[in-house]
Amino acid sequence: MTARLAMPTDSAALLAIYARYIATSITFEYELPSVAQFAAHIEDVLRVYPYIALFEGSRAIAYAYTHRFKERAAYSWCAECSIYIDPDFTHQGIGSRLYQVLFEISRLQGVRELFAVVTTPNEPSARLHAKMGFVRAGLYRNAGYKNDLWWDISIFQKSLQADCADTGAPLPLKSISEIDAEIINKICKKYF
Fold it and tell me: What are the pLDDT digits (tens) for 97-145?
């Protein structure tokens, strides 16, 4: 397996993974984005955050990314994360390793708090987040309507910086382009 920063040209391959989730409650999107829309999404995320694509040979089998948690300036040091794995490759530890990649890169950027939003119930995802050190920080009841049902969402949170209690102003968040590409490659190779 090989992990690297995704590129907009990966959009069709990564969209094929996402397409397998569109009919489920795992995503609250109703319609599958077009390849062009998905490429724009990848490009938009990569302006600031990591978007990791995982391949087995030439086949895309998973992707993971972080993105802005909330729009207000005070949230700048928080990020939300998402991971999608081809269902043929689940239960192989891929999610845990992708999270390790995101954790390391996010720390280098200066992200302090990482959040994951999970449709509830989803016990496999809840177990993964607990294993990775996330705590359940909240539950939003009846937050989304899909497939003729109202779904709750759980918010999971993980602190990435040991000094979150300090009172000094944090350094500005580094964009992914400010992190040396070789360092990102080394992090990806460390786990894949």
Answer: 999 999 999 999 999 999 999 999 999 999 999 999 999 999 999 999 9
Residue 84: domain span: 2-162+180-191
Give the span between the Cα atoms of 10 and 174, in whole angstroms. 24
In the sheet where 59-68 sits, what is the strand order? 2-5, 51-56, 59-68, 78-85, 113-120, 149-159, 135-146
- Residue 83 φ/ψ, nearest 5 degrees: -135, 135
Q: pTM of this prediction?
A: 0.94
Give the domain CATH number at 64: 3.40.630.30
Number of domains in the chain: 1
Domain annotation covers residue 153 = yes
